[in-house]
Amino acid sequence: MRPFSNNLINMKIAVPVLVKEPIEESVLFGHFGRAEHYALLDIDNKTFEIIENASDHFGGIMSPPDFLANHGVEMVLVEAMGEKAFQRFNELGIKVVKPKKELSTIKELLENPYEWIEIQAAEELKSHEHGKHHHDNHHDCEK
After folding, report:
1. Residues 65-87 pLDDT 10s
2. What topology is assigned to 2-124 in CATH?
3. N- or C-end of the chain: fewer Cβ atoms within 10 A?
4. Cα torsion angle, 93, 110, 51, 84, sign
């Protein structure tokens, strides 16, 4: 695990979210592939767009990593992810990062873009068990 220090200029960053109102208060969703929506962040302009997860988890034909790669994503910000998804992001050249501290809303993520840690191995992320669905807001982030 190492601090994230790359330049974020013009980089498209995906975050799994649970959509709330107002939209900038949408929260980081703990189960990456099962998130119904992703926020695509533009750190330079402090803007974002919400897209529906149309991966194979929701009736599509692509895995979540391939779905996001198809949207031009270069980095994903997550709290937890399975090993297969992590490996696929590596194969696609998409960086995986996590927050250094609990940053739970899109607004907080846009305001703290360098408060992230680049992940080198899936074991550095909280894992999840397939078959269990999370109906609460999100997992608590480890500090």
Report:
1. 999 999 999 999 988 888 999 99
2. Nucleotidyltransferase; domain 5 (3.30.420)
3. C
4. positive
